[in-house]
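During the first year of the project, the team set up a workflow for recording each protein of interest as an amino acid sequence followed immediately by a discrete structure-token representation. This format lets reviewers and collaborators read both layers of information side by side without switching files. As required by the reporting guidelines, we include two representative entries from the current panel. The first entry is reproduced here exactly as it appears in our internal archive.
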Amino acid sequence: MRTRGKKQERLILTFFQACKQEELPVNPLVESYDNEVVLKWNELLLEVERYTPGYLPPVSARAFAYIGLAGYETAVPGMPEYKSLGNYYAGLALPEAEGSGAYHYPTALNSAYATMIGKLYPNVPAAQLSEVVSLQNYFNAKYESAISPELFGASVEWGKSIAEAVFAWSQSDAVGHEGYLRPTDPAYVPPSGPGLWQPTYPNYGKALLPHWGAVRTFAATPDDRCEDPLPYSTNENSEFYVQAKETENKVNLIRQGLNYEDKWIAAFWSDDCPALTFTPAGRWIAIANQALEHTSADLSRAVLVNAKVGMAVCDAGIRCWGEKYRFNILRPVDYIREAMGHTDWNSIMCPDGSGQFFTPAFPTYPSGHGTFGAAAAEVLTAEFGQNFGMTDRCHENRVDFIGTPRSFNSFYEMAQENAYSRLPIGVHFRMDAEAALDLGYKVGRRVNNLPWQ
């Protein structure tokens, strides 16, 4: 394990003195560098997760967390205001920085990110693998010419060693590690009864990730739970029926061409059609990238934000899926078709070009989209402020769906619209969105309260 604090300050001071004597072209403080290495690797990571088979949203979210942690631990020797989390997590055995810990941190991060992506996405398609190699080579060529061979080699090895240690720790999480290989459990049989989820129209897919709630978290605890959902009822005066009717009506208005705003919102936040975009968890990595770029954040801030957002969406997925299968509530499509008798009704999610649409193959309560978004919004607000206005350009210039940018006054506003978007697309009840926001904010606060400083 590493030691921090006063020892680190002495080491950095020693390095500054050595710099004056030897005129080394490097700065031991991570904040002295720009954010390019983080932003470019994030952009590529979103392409990798988009096309790599098996990376369902919670699985991708978990990968983001381990990649973010590896980046943070690689850089933290040069971040005097922050400290390693190595002693916080049982079983996480990190190497110690050599000498003063004065690496060229962009080089070290390039090595860490490339190593982690290679290990966490071993089945990445050839096209994206080629891009990984190209990006690593781009940064290596850029940095190698600017620093001494000895410093370059030490920095590459430092990033790689941290990545290997973090990956080894990932392997100790039996349920979560290599989750992309186990999207379903053939032995899992969902409970049956009125109002309970069963494989759902129209594709009747097996339950996805029914045990994900047992994956190891970074900050969230089993106490981070949702309130009980509305009591199931088919009575037309019940709140359950009213909320189902609300979802049905919103979809019907869009089908009739009468509510373009809701159609825009539904398409803009969808992010769950395989290979069409990144995942709903990945969306918040993209949003963080935009915030970092907009503020010209230094490398230290970029590394920290990356780690916090990754951990937030990871834990959001774990706790959300734990709650989904704890309550096991049916999707609106089944309620509307069976309880309301509207047997020709369907969602408008993920059209396949033939008029067919789909519904996610897992219980409805709470919303995954909403939980991911709220957790990320909580940590982003802590880093950028309550009133951070931005225009989300994630899908700008897309012509295959409505990707026209939308502007917001805060990350909370973004999270709320993201959660709401699942109603007009037809796959959630309002209670799912509300519970998701509450759960996600809890998770985000847990991540903010980790001993970063």
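The second entry, processed by the same pipeline in the following quarter, appears below.
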Amino acid sequence: MRVLLVNPSYPFEEFPRLLVTLPYLAAALRAQGHEVEILDLLLSRTTREKVERRMLRFRPQLVGITSVTLNHHIANRIAGWVRECDERVPIAMGGPHVSFEIEGSFRDLPALDFIGIGEGEHTLVELPRALDGRMDLRDVRGLAMRTPDGIVRTPPRPLEDDLDELPTPARELVPLARY
């Protein structure tokens, strides 16, 4: 599966720092045979054109967007642009804001299909498996999803105790020289 991970821009009043989570997620996905790209908009202006160009070139089958409270409104815009580019592509969001504000995030983000709650390395690896029909979505722990019956949450996923068990982060997918 082709998976696009998006790091939204961030208000420059805050000190922008390299996001470590997306390279970890990318490495975990790659270890399972998925093709992954990261669209890092942190140090650049987030525009519809940048998102559309990547969507058209890469044609992802799943899009994951990270979000903190300060850039949640930007992540919301990105999700809307992704949905306009491909109305069928599943959109997942992770990060502290959506993990703690699940109902509000689904209410505020009509394009959003899934929320990864807490650490996402294992949840995001299982989500493509479920989307491919190789497991039930309700068996993906640490996931909230929009369904016709409302928002459904799966059981929580335990925290990763041994970070050495995770694959080495795919930092080559991020423009490190800009940091």
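For the second entry, the following points were noted during internal review. Residues 72-85 form the longest helix (14 residues). The mean pLDDT is 88. Both points are flagged for discussion at the upcoming steering committee meeting.
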